[in-house]
Protein: Translocation and assembly module subunit TamA
Organism: Kushneria pakistanensis
Amino acid sequence: MRFFDPDRMIASKSVRRLLLLTLLMIGTGQASAVFAIEADVNGVRGELATNIRNYLQTLDIPENSETQSYGAEVTQRVKDALKPYGYYEPEISVSFRNREQVVIDVDRGKPVRVRSVVVRIEGEADSDEPFQQALKASPLEEMEGKRLLHTPYDTLKARLTALALERGYFDARYRQSRIEVHPWEHAAYISLVFESGERYRFGDVFVTGSQIREERLRKMAPFDPDDRYLATDVALYSQRLGDAGWFRSISVRPRLDERSRQNPSPGVASSPDARVEGEDPDSRVRNFQDDLAAQERPQRATVPIDVSVTPEDRHKFETGIGYSTDVGPRVNFGWNMPWLNDQGHSLNNDLTLSGPEQTLVGEYNVPLDNPARDNYYMRYGFKNTDRSESDTRSFESSVSFGREWRFENDWIQNAYLRTTYEDFTQGDEEDKVVLFIPGMSWTRTRTDNTRFPMWGDRQDILIEGSSDVWGSDANFLRTRLNSQWVRSLGANNRFVGRATVGATSTDNFSQVPPSLRFFTGGDSSVRGYEYETIAPENSNGKLQGGKHLLVGSLEYQRQVANNWWGATFVDTGNAFNEWWPDELKTSAGVGVRWISPVGPVRLDIAHPFDSEEDSWRLHFGIGPEF
């Protein structure tokens, strides 16, 4: 008699579960033990052999499978690899050495040659220059009498398809698109007839998620309703919205149906339009919309633009620390408000503290129709300077009102009126002045890499003046021209040049405050000298500053290891009162550059040739050159 034993039953179930789990794991392990095939190809070389190997790369044979059962699949893959090159009747022999190696002997046979080529664009695109350029650049029409290659056909078709989407031919279709192959004739007939239909125009712009007035965002578009559609204009619109700084995320898209895309085949694939005679004739003519997997064609010849945005944070705070031999340690605090109201006004404030200088500057920005290009601004600031090396003590406050233009050629133009109050001591001179200074400036910066450019330049031009005619305490006309450039020779040689010219015309230089006088010397001018210690002196040997300025520098850098560069340089320049200077202070030195994530870290040692006090001087700085 058997009695029910629950513990024994539980144990039996556990054993059965453990055995079942073990068998599953073994089965899974066996199924996953697969090997990619390595093919030795005989009979063909070059691109044909390479394409055969590419087609076989994705074929895996499980460990316990019979290799010979995969012979038919290998043969078919080899045939598919040869078709794009015009070989449709090859003879193929396959033998497996093991699961990982196969030997393929190929007799490619007689190639298929192109008997006729018909390529034509119909509709409005026939007079659209990019489409004509695509036809001229394609070798497809020149293939008649030559061995069939699928790539020129597919490349031209893909280019026409891309142009249709880029230029707004959303009703376009291929009336004919096929490569008809007659293997018994060793002949192929190519037909590609593109019917563009009407070119679409921009419709209305629809905005969602914006805290800025929608009308302002619409005015930022580089197109007007009813303009001919261009995908590049859509991209430019997105860039303009991003440059405004109002949004954390931006999506600008034409209102079209989602298009599907298939993953490309390995290697050079046969054209999907290649048809061997005898296949389904209904599949020979393919509609353009079918190629794009469109669900429904628009009913109007206009395409609306959908803009979806997410607002940027209203308040952004930044802190930073730095060091340079010019000012020593410094701390920076930033408080930025990318948008203050629904018109997109913004406010930025920056506080910088160092031993000799303390600065607070701010800017209130009022954007115009294109905030990335045009705006009005009010800038204000306070600066306290106490530098015994340059015999300068000054407290300056200023407010300026201006207009800024950013042109397509990268130049930035500013027209402004600045009001400045400065209480200063320069050498033995003390004064308090109020100045009303109108001015113009032009700036352009171009780089291939903002962190560490191998090519780039920066140009600064400034013209400003003051007169007692409109209530200023000083009369002067002042200009400054600054040019800096970077060029490279190969990947390891870099050249950096700088030149600055400044000039002042005045009948009472003593009333021109230190902030508007010229000094030089320091990390970014003439190295080997202390910051702003090169300038004319008075009879007591104290610096006065100069009316004019001339500075130049040439530096050669060589990469020595990864992010490390060595440098050698020559600097020269002076500030002076009578043009031309009596002498130019000159120095030379060597340095090291480490390309950090925030820009180059620079360490230089420079020797001034005409200074008895400083035989060598170290210079240290962090940050990009432009």
About this structure: The two ends are 96 Å apart (CA to CA). Residues 250 and 427 are 55 Å apart (CA to CA). The longest helix spans residues 6-32.
